Fold:
Amino acid sequence: MTHKVANQRLEDLPAPGALPWLGNLHQLDSKSLHAQLEKWGQALGPTYTFKFGQKRILVTSDAEIALSVLKDRPAGFRRMSSIKPVAEEMGMNGVFSTEGDSWRPQRDLVMRALTPHRLEGFFPTLQLISDRLRRRWQRTAHDGVDTNILQDLTRFTVDATATLMFGKDVNTLESDEDAIQQHLGVIFPMIGYRVHALFPYWRYFKLPKDYQLERSLKAVRAFAKQMIEYARDHMRRSPGEGPRNLLEAMLALRDEPGSGFSDDDVYANILTLLLAGEDTTAYSLAWAMYILAGKPELQSRLHSAALDALGEARMPMTFADTAKLDLFEGVALEGMRFRPVVPLLFLEANDDTDLAGIEIPKGTPVLLLTRPAGLDDNNYRNAKAFMPERWLGRRESRDGHNSKAFMQFGAGPRFCPGRYLAALEMKIVLAMLARNFSITYAEAPDVTQEVFAFTMMPSRLRLRFGAIAESKADPN
Structure:
C-alpha cells in the first residue's frame, strides 16, 4: 500500500451523535447493521467513524481506500480479531478465518481445487445437479404452487460443493429429508451474532439459540465425518492414485510427517467450504431471481438470449456452452451490485498505519461498505439501472465502468478462491431458468427484506414458476 503522511485522526472524521459509554450501540441492530451504516454514509460522506461502546470504528465506502486495505492483506490488515476465536470455538477456523503462517498452505490447496481446468472436468457433474434443480422447478410449475427459492438454491449449492470438494454426491435436491443445508443455515447467522456480541455470554450460560447451534454443529460434524470416511475408503482402495478432490488432498497433507496440518484443520475447512459454497452463491442467485421476478421484459430478453446460446437444449450441455453465457453472468453481477451478499467486510489494522491520510492505530476495526460504490454514477454509467449488458466485453473497454468499485469477491492476496465456481454455477442456473421458466412473485415484493447475518440474505422469498412450452424434440 502507498503510505501518505497522516494528517487526520479518527476523531477528526465525521461521526453520528453518540451517547456516553454506549457510543452508538443503541442505534445498531445486528440484522440491519449494513443498512444503518449505509444510512450514516449518506449523511456523513463515504468515510466516517462511529463508536461501538468506547471503541471508535472506521467505516468507508470509498473504492480506492477499500482497495488499498484489501491489497495490504495479510501484512497490514487482517480479518477483525473477534472472528477467529468464534470460528475456533465452532471448530471451523479454516481458510476463511485463519491468519498468519497457517493461512497460505490452506489457501494454496483450495486454489488448486478451484482452477478453471478443474472446473471443466467437474462440468458433467455440475450439469447433472443443475438438471435436478430444473426438474424440481418443472414439478413446481406443473403443480401450480409457489416455492421457497432459498431452500431450493441452498440444496443446489450444497450438492455442488460437496461433490466437487469432497467427491460425494449427497443429492439433497431429490430428498425431502432434513438436509444438511438446514443446519448450515443456523450456523452462519450465529457466527455474525457472536462476532459482534459485546460479551461472550455463551461461555457461561446458553440460550435456546445456542443449543440449536450446538445441534447443528453436531449434525454438520457428522456429515463431515461421513465425507472423510468416504474419502479415506477410496484412498485405501486406490493407494497409487493421486487425490481426486480437495478433501483427499487435505487428508494426504494431514498424513505427511511434519505437515502441521491436523484433523482439526480438515474438519474446519470442510465446514468453511460448505458454508462459503452454500450461502454466498445461493443468496446471490436468490437476489438475482428476486430482481428478475419484477422485470418481465428482461425475462423475455433473457429467454431469447438463452435460445440463441442453447438452441433446443434445456440447459448448457457442454463446458463450451458456458462461454456463450456472459449475459447471464452479467445478470448475477448486477444482482450482486444491487443486493450484495457481502455488504460489509470486517477488517482490522495489524499495526499503527496511515490510510489515505488518516492515522489508524493498531487494532482499529475498519469496515468496508461494498454497495454504495457500486451504485454511484461516478463508478457506473446510469448506476441505478439494472443493466446486465454493462458487464459484457473486455473490462478495459467498458464505458463508465470502474471495476475497482465491485468488491463482492474481495481483492488482493485474499481474493475469493471460489469466484470461478460461483460464476459458473450462477450463469448455468440463470441460463437454465431463462430457457425454461418465467417467474413471478408469490407474495408482495416488500415481504422480502434484507437480513444481515454475516452475509446478506432475503428474509423470505417465494416465487411462482411458469413453464415455457417445451419442444416436441425435447420431452424432458
Observations:
- The first strand starts at residue 47 and ends at 52.
- Residues 263-293 form the longest helix (31 residues).
- Residues 254 and 262 are 6 Å apart (CA to CA).
